[in-house]
């Protein structure tokens, strides 16, 4: 199994040129903004809930404003869609048996994701939609829930795997806890902060 049956979903970029990047992706791809706040923007050019995510480093990491350091700006992660929660969780179990673990497990509200880093530290997200239709996923960006938590709530993949194997419905497992603690952003962005 191992995450082999995936479809490219989106790319996330860290930038100090948030407004320029937003305008560029809107112009070049004909993308429209699904959701935007001072630190984040999610854009799409088709029925997918988002194809691009932009992270404004001037807000997330203001101490680096104006810096164009390699490794700080650029691709944050590449995301791949998985067909079902079953595929995501069974692939998690298989990869865990091989000693490969995710560094971040988060239910974003419109999708639930496992984030992995390859041996060079390249970050990738394997994600499954929370809603049964693309239209519902896109509508999530226009609702109130995302305004209170644009990042998501962390989950324990072992708990989700046990629930799934015990017969819990995927929709019950994927239900977003809007009152859950907002997850810190994890991954290379966090590593950079610790090393400085």
Mind telling me the CATH superfamily name? 2,3-Dihydroxybiphenyl 1,2-Dioxygenase, domain 1
Q: Fill in the CATH topology.
A: 2,3-Dihydroxybiphenyl 1,2-Dioxygenase, domain 1
Distance between the termini: 39 Å
Major sheet summary line: 9 strands, mixed
Order of helices and strands: EHEEEHEHEEEHHEHHH
| Highest CATH level, the class | Alpha Beta
Number of helices: 8
Content-based structural category: alpha+beta
Number of domains: 1
- Backbone CA Rg: 17 Å
- Average of the residue pLDDT scores: 87
Shape summary: globular
Characterize the quaternary organization of these chains: single chain
| Total number of strands | 9
- Return residue spans where pLDDT drops below 50 for at least 5 consecutive residues: 190-196
Query: How are the strands of the biggest sheet laid out side by side?
Result: 2-3-4-1-5-8-7-6-9
In CATH, the architecture is Roll
Assess the beta-strand content as a share of residues.
25-35%
Portion of residues in helices? 25-40%
Describe the protein in words:
The chain has about 200 residues and is α+β, with helices and mostly antiparallel strands. It has a single domain (about 5-195), classed as 2,3-Dihydroxybiphenyl 1,2-Dioxygenase, domain 1. About 30% of the residues lie in helices and about 30% in strands. The chain has helices spanning about 20-30, 55-60, 85-95, 135-140, 145-150, 155-165, 170-175, 190-195; strands at about 5-15, 30-35, 40-45, 50-55, 75-80, 105, 110-115, 125-130, 155. Strands 2-3-4-1-5-8-7-6-9 form a nine-stranded mixed beta sheet, sandwiched between helices. The chain is globular. Residues about 190-195 have low confidence and may be disordered.
């Amino acid at each position: 199994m191992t995450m082999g049956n995936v479809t490219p979903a989106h790319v996330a970029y860290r930038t100090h040129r948030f407004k320029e990047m937003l305008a560029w992706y809107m112009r070049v791809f004909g993308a429209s903004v699904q959701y935007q706040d001072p630190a984040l923007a999610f854009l799409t050019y088709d029925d997918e809930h988002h194809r691009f995510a932009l992270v404004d480093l001037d807000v997330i990491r203001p101490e680096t404003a104006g810096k164009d350091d390699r490794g700080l700006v650029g691709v944050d992660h590449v995301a791949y869609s998985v067909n079902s929660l079953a595929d995501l969780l069974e692939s998690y179990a298989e990869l865990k048996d091989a000693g490969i673990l995710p560094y971040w497990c988060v239910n974003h509200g419109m999708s639930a994701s496992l984030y992995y880093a390859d041996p060079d530290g390249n970050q990738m997200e394997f994600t499954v939609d929370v809603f049964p239709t693309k239209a519902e996923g896109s509508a999530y960006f226009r609702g109130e829930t995302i305004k209170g938590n644009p990042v998501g709530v962390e989950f324990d993949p072992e708990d989700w795997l046990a629930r799934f194997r015990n017969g819990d419905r995927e929709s019950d497992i994927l239900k977003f806890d809007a009152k859950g603690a907002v997850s810190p952003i994890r991954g290379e962005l966090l590593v950079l902060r610790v090393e400085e």
